[in-house]
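Lab notebook, page 48
Experiment: co-folding of the full assembly
Goal: obtain a model of how the components sit together before planning crosslinking
Operator: M.T.
Materials (sequences as entered):
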Amino acid sequence: MGQEKVAEVGSLEPGKMTQVKVDGQATLLANVDGNYYAIHNICTHKGCTLSKGRLNGNIVTCPCHGSQFDVTNGHVMHGPAQKPEQAYSVVVQDNDIIIET
Ligand code: FES
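Observation: model returned without errors.
Model output:
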């Protein structure tokens, strides 16, 4: 299992999300109430970039057709998407936000 530092604590405010690269893959990193979560950033519906959508609590809404995913586990909360997003473990070590692949 690999580990990749993607950001530093404090660089992403609570309620915000951003795109980072993990293993060359577009990955969404979200801060939900001070906890960090990561899922694949490409919508399983038709491939739009989830981090360009909206984050409400732990739910990201795709900007294209409104699919909703839970950033804590990648589950589909609302269609049209049917397939979940891959979710990654995120750990914080000292000041570093690290995603495990
Ligand atoms: Fe995301 Fe269609 S591409 S909902």
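Interpretation: The two ends are 6 Å apart (CA to CA).
Next step: discuss with group before ordering constructs.
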